[in-house]
Amino acid sequence: FMILPVGAKNFKEAIRMGAEVFHNLKAVLKSKGYNTGVGDEGGFAPNLGSNEEALQVIMEAIKKAGYEAGKDILLGMDVASSEFFNKETKKYVLAGEGGKEFTSKELAHFYETLISKYPIVSIEDGLDENDWEGWKYLSDLLGKKVQLVGDDLFVTNTEKLANGIEKGIANSILIKVNQIGTLTETFDAIEMAKRAGYTAVVSHRSGETEDTTIADIAVATNAGQIKTGSASRTDRIAKYNQLLRIEDQLGASAQYLGLKSFYNLKK
Asked: Using one digit for the tens of pLDDT, what is the confidence trace for 32-56?
């Protein structure tokens, strides 16, 4: 689960908003008796009862930090559905929610219910990477309302992205430089996405170092979005610090797009 501080005036303010929500979320989790240890990407990893409870505690943290969800801050989800897709039964099994099973269409409508209740603007890997028929249904259902990001679906590969664009699948691509292997192919994928009206989200990996190259790439390509972990762990913070330095160096010419980053959605 992620937060997107779209209401910030600049990146500096966005970072502050994110940090304030992060620390308030820790307080909310503590008050409910949950563990506040962090995972690889710096996010909290409590043993919650359901996916909806995760959204609820984040909403509470946003309010506690003094912000308005839906205006100042929006929500995002990296579902990683390939991890709970049963290839034999073709069902999505939510083990953490008592083994609930969903077909592709049922899961798409489950997301539809969630976005009607919470200010969710981005869903990553909502369906299995090989479930292209399901992805088409999801894209037709929600593609005008939320950003549907293909990570495992496209793997930063221009051939797969071109296929997705042709079939009207997803409306955004996650960009991982070392997934495709070269900067040339990375830039090609970003440009192909933009030409097709897809957004491009520059991303870190679960295993990271303090290298800040992806921060430079996000700015250089005008991607408008970066996904690089929570407000903890130096391997994540290093990227945010580099973006702060870039904004400071650019001065008045620096632009923080906020909601305008989602140029492919009907506002």
From this structure: 999 888 887 778 888 888 999 999 9
pLDDT tens-digit profile of 176-196? 988 888 999 999 999 999 999
The residues carrying an active-site annotation are 41, 176
Paired sense of beta strands 120-124 and 147-150, if any: parallel
Q: How many helices (H) and strands (E) does the chain have?
A: 9, 10
Cα(first)–Cα(last) distance of the chain, in Å? Answer: 22
Query: Which DSSP string do the residues of 55-85 spell out, in sequence order?
Result: HHHHHHHHHHTT--BTTTBEEEEE--GGGGE
Q: Give the model's confidence band at 229: pLDDT under 50 very low, under 70 low, under 90 confident, else very high.
A: confident
For residues 230 and 41, the answer to whether their CB atoms sit within 8 Å is: yes
Neighbours of 92 (CB within 10 A): 25
Task: Confirm whether pTM is higher than 0.90.
Answer: yes
Q: Is the dihedral of CA 39, 55, 102, 138 positive or negative?
A: negative
Domain architecture of the chain: domains with CATH: 74-261 (3.20.20.120)
Please give the Cα distance from 267 to 256 (Å, whole number): 18
What does the alpha-carbon distance between residue 144 and residue 171 come to, in Å, rounded to a whole number? 9
